[in-house]
Amino acid sequence: MAKSNKPAVGIDLGGTNMQIGVVGSDMKMLGQAKKKTKAADGAAAVLDRLVEGVHEALAAAKLTIKDVSCVGIGAPGAVDPGTGIVLEAVNLRWKNYPLAEVMTKRFGIPVFLDNDVNVAVWGEHQLGSGKGSRNMLGVWVGTGIGGGLVLNGELYYGHFMTAGEIGHVIALPNNPPGHRSLEHNCSRTAVVDQIVRLVKANRKSKITELCEGNYDDIKSKMVAKAYEVGDEVVTEVIDHAAELLGIEIAGVVTLLSLERVVLGGGLTEAVGRPFVEKVERAVKHFAFPERCKQVKIVASQLEDTAGIFGAAILASNRL
Asked: Which residues pair with 264 in a beta bridge?
């Protein structure tokens, strides 16, 4: 953030929550806010909450929008950082939405856009578990599954500016439509759906007690708690998801000869080290050749602040 001595605002706009923070030029978090995304309410309502969250974070930092240099936003799905357009965000139900332009008008200062996992991966690369690596993959497992690549020390976008969309890679092509991609099978949403389907097929699970029978209200922490106590249904689903995720990551490691993989997102953070270890076991089994099995599989260090820091750093560098 050497381009300006002013703080920058970083926003991690997820499918479920939005995390907002004010980051100083010394990389210190000055103020934070968190809000529900509520994508079903429509784009206008989501952006109203985002603006409210920014002002809450600024108030916590005892600053106003005039005190910051720029705003960085990490949005889910395919985005074009150059034009600031969200090309397609399945979780938000947005397509070709000019987010950077809209928010620049609302804030009155420059707003820069990138993919939500790209900014989190960049945050980890600069300040967290990816620090010191030149070639790494980040995979965030939450409402959906997103990925980001750092190659030769720089975020890699590819020709169409959408590199890293590992969640939309077809993992199980023989499954019925809507159940074929990695996201369809390994995201927190998919994991919960599979658990509920098994419970409704008369399998016994502690998850019923934890959610008090309200299967629409199952959170990652509930899944993690059931996994921790050895619940058979939850263990079966989580272990299958971790193995499938690891197989797909092994393919990327084999293809690009990566030295490090950082795992983040709500489900990863909730289940913790056991989930990371299951993924690691699959990656190291399937990666080729033998030397690629030395890849380091690590958990996010910054967790839910990774996207805030990454978005703020990227925006400040682009200013």
From this structure: 140
Count helices and strands (H / E) in the chain: 11, 13
Q: Do residues 73 and 104 lie in contact, with contact meaning Cβ atoms separated by under 8 Å? A: no
Instruction: List, in sequence order, every beta strand (DSSP E) within 14-105.
Output: 17-23, 29-36, 71-75, 78-80, 85-89, 94-97
Tell me whether domains 8-123+305-318 and 133-300 share a fold: yes
pLDDT in tens, 142-183: 888 999 999 999 999 999 888 999 999 999 999 999 999 999
Strand ranges (E), 43-153: 71-75, 78-80, 85-89, 94-97, 111-115, 136-141, 145-151
> What CA–CA distance (Å, rounded) separates 280 from 287?
10
Distance CA 262, CA 233 (A): 27
The two structure tokens encoding residue 18: 């939005």
- Rounded-to-integer distance, Cα 308 and Cα 9, Å: 8
Q: CATH second-level architecture of 8-123+305-318?
A: 2-Layer Sandwich (3.30)
CATH number for the domain running over 133-300 = 3.30.420.40
What lies within 8 Å, CB to CB, of 177 at 6+ separation is none
Strand (E) or helix (H) holding 12: strand 8-13
Please say whether the beta carbons of 68 and 77 come within 8 A.
no
Beta bridge pairs of residue 151: 154
Q: What distance in Å separates the CA atoms of residue 35 and residue 220, rounded to the nearest whole number?
A: 17
Taking the C-alpha atoms of residue 206 and residue 226, their distance in angstroms, rounded to an integer, is 6
- pLDDT one-digit tens code per residue, 72-115: 999 988 899 999 999 988 778 899 999 999 999 999 999 999 99
